């Protein structure tokens, strides 16, 4: 009997090769895809998607490409350790040209004529650069220049950059300010939370033909999360190894001991999200009696309090669309205006290339570590930040 027959599966549920059929649409994956789709209907669409290794960026891109209409022409460049000339050659090669004997000025002219021709034929052109964290600043500047190619009416090239977190740091450097101003939307794909991880595992098993959710018992998921940190690729590796171990032991279902056997086989340590720089966060959570709410945001307008919300560790998006965690219905607030990042050190606010900017106090900021009682201003709305950890510490001191 084979591995698949033994567990009533029609195909491998946790293989590492990207497969859009197995893509689990977490809230953040759905939003990232919506951002990519916006490049099609925005004439000047320019989107940056970042994420940790194994977070599902490539699978997400493949799903996006599989659903493009016939009136969309696209190029995907994945080899990114290139000079500006080599990059232009790679782009034109993806569009069907053989440009290897052309000089840079000829490459630019060929690309310009191709884009204008596609526009005249009613086609939309999308350039997707995967592994974009490896692009040199010279190539990024070249991308900025070609993003400006336009007819007398509108720009004719849509661009999606996808890469690891280093891309985000590179784009924030001062000498790439002009490029960042062209970017419409930026989004970071983080790991799955514990609930999302469990749904992810159940989803992949269902796609692979398993009709019931009893292959992994409840004791498995806490261990899987502790060693994978919610990163999809690590989840796949650990679950696949655990299934192989259980198959070798002729078991029909798995428990925590089987997951630990796989951990031993892989020689893994606990994921860094459960140790290292997150250790203080766990200590804080324990002091709060197990509650994970770290940040409180009070929304005010013209001095009137409109709402108060509390958030745990992770990312909180602020904007005027209802899919944001903090929804502010105002013409002065961009669709996805800013984000808050709660971590073990506190809370940071970051502008997501909004139209009207983000102010902390009287100062406009791009990215700023918040202090207790700081006021974030977005148009006519104020967001008052409270560090719940400090409030809890003050209460404990008073009680003592």
Keywords for this entry:
globular; single chain; 400 residues; six-stranded antiparallel sheet; disordered C terminus; five-stranded parallel sheet; alpha/beta
What report would you give on this structure?
- This protein has 400 residues and is α/β, with parallel strands linked by helices.
- The protein has 14 helices and 16 strands.
- It has helices spanning 3-6, 27-41, 57-66, 84-94, 104-120, 137-147, 165-171, 177-182, 194-207, 218-228, 232-248, 256-266, 279-287, 388-399; strands spanning 46-51, 72-77, 124-129, 157-163, 185-189, 295-301, 304-311, 314-319, 326-327, 338-343, 346-351, 358-360, 363-365, 367-369, 375-378, 381-387.
- Strands 7-6-16-15-12-13 form a six-stranded antiparallel beta sheet.
- The N and C termini lie far apart (65 Å).
Q: Mean pLDDT, nearest integer?
A: 85
- Helix percent band: 25-40%
Number of strands: 16
Provide the structure class.
Answer: alpha/beta
Brief write-up:
The chain is an alpha/beta fold. The protein is 39% helix and 21% strand.
Task: Walk me through the topology.
Layout: H1 3-6, H2 27-41, E1 46-51, H3 57-66, E2 72-77, H4 84-94, H5 104-120, E3 124-129, H6 137-147, E4 157-163, H7 165-171, H8 177-182, E5 185-189, H9 194-207, H10 218-228, H11 232-248, H12 256-266, H13 279-287, E6 295-301, E7 304-311, E8 314-319, E9 326-327, E10 338-343, E11 346-351, E12 358-360, E13 363-365, E14 367-369, E15 375-378, E16 381-387, H14 388-399
Helix pairs in contact: 4-5, 10-11, 10-12, 11-12
